[in-house]
Amino acid sequence: MDCKFLIVCSEAIVVPLERKDGGRRGIVSLKGHSSTRIHYKQLPKNLRNAQRSKLPPDFGVNLFLKKPTTEEDPESNENCDGVLEEEQGGGTGCDGEGEETSDLEWESDEIEAISCLFQGRIPQKPGKLSRERPLPLPLPHKIRPLGLPTPKKQVKMASPGIVSSRSSISKQVYKNPTFLVNLAKKIKLLHPDQDVSAVLDDCARFLRKGSLSLTVRELGHMGLPERALQTFCWVQKQPHLFPDDRILCSTVEVLARNHELKVPFDLQKLTAVTSRGVIEAMVRGFIRGGDLKLAWKLLFAAKYCKRILDAGVYAKLVLELGKNPDKHFLAEVLLNDLAEREDLNLTQQDCTAVMKVCVKLGKYDIVESLFKQSGSEPSVVMYTTVIHSRFSAKEYREALAVVWEMETSNCLFDLPAYRVVMKLFVALNDLPRAVRYFSKLKDAGFSPTYDIYKNLATLYMVSGRLAKCRQILKEAEMAGLELDKAIRSQLLLFETETR
């Protein structure tokens, strides 16, 4: 038996250990009561705290399900040489005797859960387990045409306020309506002896071409054509603002509307050398100024010189001429000119205005053609005009079809639409529909007009419902409307006949 002695204090304990070759060797463990401790050499930090992570276990080896063993590894016992007990005997070292561990019994649920962790899938609840992956995005080189670069498109930002705050002052100001209208207000407040340059010189560096056209139009609305002309003269002196057709057209329109534009006698020569935008601005100015005769002459001078103007200019002149019965023949001539044009691009407002004039002139076929050519969804004004046109042409059933079309398209009725529809129901002698639309009119918040009360009272009288007729007449009187004496005399006549 080999023995090793460590002499530190008076008490020693010899522990026999087995050797690898079958022999025995002894280790003396000393237990001292002195205050002196034995400190063994510690491992360096790089070995105590290893930086490299441990290698993963072999693939397919399930360490959790491995059956625990009770036998101690003899090599681990050799590493426990020289381990001392704690001073108070509370700690236990590697004394060569392995602790007995009880066999762990795994339940089937635990085994299944742990095995699923290594299989890479956790059991899901019953349901749809398969996931539908979205289609991959198309590749840019497959979308782009060969040999042609894709143009850059301006992406609309989610918060344009951030973009405007970062942009330059010139970009924020040069087309800002509030800023341009305020310029017109400042020019209006100037002393008559002062020039507009006192206001415009301070903001000249922020302006661009076309900026002051809104200011000139606003000066025209204020009744200041002289200031509008001064503004145009100031723009002419600025090389970065002139030439500009927009401010030129705005100035010409303002001067023509206020009768301040000097026009030569030879209109044909004028239209031959003038741009299309300036001619249209002159016509619009003359129409708004009430000078329809000069606008008529200018249009025919342009037609003589084979200048094609916008159809909206014709529509505005037709609308103004249709208001005067003495000038209806001039409106018919313009309508014939519009009928000859192939590209009749009218806005919905201009188209409705032309249709109203055609109803007055009895041109119901033009109304139908314009209604069919209107590409966009018709408005309530256009529907009302078509119903009135067919009512005037005594095509009541066709007019009723337009009413059903308005209902199916969820078009909200306004008060003029209710007035036309009530006239149609009286012509059809359709009392139930007239009563229903009369109640809908009230539910919509409209107050019935004189003609609506009159038509409904007449319809009740013709149907023999005299009590209802008297009720409608009383309701009209309470609303402040006094119906004519003809209806009252007819009501008395019907009452005497029934008696």
Overview of the molecule:
The protein has 499 residues and is mainly α. Helix content is 53%, strand content 3%. It contains 25 helices and 3 strands. It has helices spanning 45-48, 74-78, 108-119, 140-143, 160-166, 169-173, 177-188, 197-200, 213-221, 225-236, 245-257, 267-273, 276-289, 292-304, 311-322, 328-340, 348-361, 364-373, 380-392, 396-408, 415-428, 431-443, 450-462, 466-478, 485-498, and strands at residues 2-4, 12-18, 24-30. Strands 1-3-2 form a 3-stranded mixed beta sheet, with no helix packed on it. A hairpin with a 5-residue loop joins strand 2 and strand 3 (24-30). Helix 13 packs antiparallel against helix 14 (292-304) and helix 23 (450-462) packs parallel to helix 25. The longest helix is centred in the middle third of the chain and has 14 residues, at 276-289. The protein is flat and about 130 Å long. 24% of the residues are buried. Mean pLDDT is 77; it is low at 1-15, 26-36, 71-101 and 153-164. This is Pentatricopeptide repeat-containing protein. Residues 67-101, 125-161 are annotated as: Disordered.
